[in-house]
Amino acid sequence: MYQKTIFDNLIEINFEKEVSIEDLRPWSFSKYDSYLTCPIKFFFRYIYKIDVEKNKFLAFGSGVHLVIEKLLTKPVTLNEKIILNLAKGIKSKIEPLFDIDTFESYILYILKFVEKIKKNYSKFEVETSYACDENFSYVPYESKHSFLRGKIDLILEQPLEIQIVDHKTTGILNNRSLKNILGTLKDKSYKQLLWYAALVSLKKPRRTYTLSFFVIKNGKIFFRKIENLDTRKTFFKIKNRLLKIERKLENKSIFEIIDKKSFEVLKQKNKKLCFYCDYIKYCKKLEKLLEKKYW
Ligand code: SF4
Fold first, then answer.
1. Nearest-CA residue for atom 7 of ligand 1
2. Ligand 1 atom with the shortest distance to the CA of 263
3. What pLDDT, in 10s, does the model give residues 157-182?
4. Inter-residue contact 139 to 145 (CB < 8 Å)
5. What per-residue confidence (pLDDT) applies to 293?
6. Is 65 helix (H, G, I), strand (E, B) or coil?
7. How far is the CA of 89 from the centre of ligand 1 (A)?
8. In terms of pTM, does the model score above 0.70?
C-alpha cells in the first residue's frame, strides 16, 4: 500500500505497487482510453489513485453539463439571460473556476440545442448511469459486480430508436481549431458512444441506435445511425479488449510494464499531451527512478 504523505507537494507513491483486478474494474471508456493514450498516466490516475486538482478545463466542462442538465430537467423559460444567470449560479455554488465570460459566447448554441430537444422529444433521460457485469447483465452502477459502466449525458427515446448524445466542450478554452477538434472527436467519440449503446440496450433494447455528440464550439450535432446493432456482440468485443489489458497488467508493477525505452517512446508520442499533463511532476520522478534502475 502506498502512503498518502505529502512531500514537496506531491503524494508519495509506492511505485512497486502491483496492479490488482479491483484497480482495473469497473472499466469506463475514459479509463480504457487513458490506458491506450498513456499507460504511465493510467498508472498515476487509476492504480496510484492520484486525483488531479480541479482546473479551468474540467470546471468548464462540468459547468456546461450542469447548465444543460438544469435546462432540460427544470421548467425554466428558455432565453439567453436566464441561461447566463443559471451559469453564474453554478459558478458561485458549485464550480468556482467556471469561466463565465467564455461561456457567454456559446449561450445561443446551447439555447438552440435545448429548444430542439424539448420540442422534438417527449421522452429523454439526462445524466444517467449504466453498468453491466462480465456476462452482459445489467447491474447497479455501484455494484461490486460492475465490469463496464458509463455516465451518459443524454438519451433520447423513440419507439424504434435510441439516440445517445455526448456533450463536448473540447478545444474551447485552449483555442484549438474546429478541424483539429473534430478530428479527435470523430475518432474517439463514436467508439465511446458504442460502449454506451451496448450499456443502454440492456434497459432500452432497440433495433436502431444513433450515436451523436454535440460540439459546443460550433453548436452542431454530429451523428452516426446504426441499424440492427448487435449490442451483445459489441459488448463481447469490448470485453475481449479489456481482458487482454487485464492479463497484461494484473500483478505487475509499473517497472514490469514501462522500461526506460518505452518511457522515451511514450514521451515522444505524447509530446503535446505532456505539455498539459496534470501528472508531469510525478512523471519526472518516475523518469529518475527508471534511470537509476536501468543504468
Ligand atoms: S507527462 Fe506525458 S508521458 Fe508522462 S504521464 Fe503525462 S502524458 Fe504520460
1. 274
2. 3
3. 999 999 999 999 988 888 778 888 88
4. yes
5. 75
6. helix
7. 35
8. yes
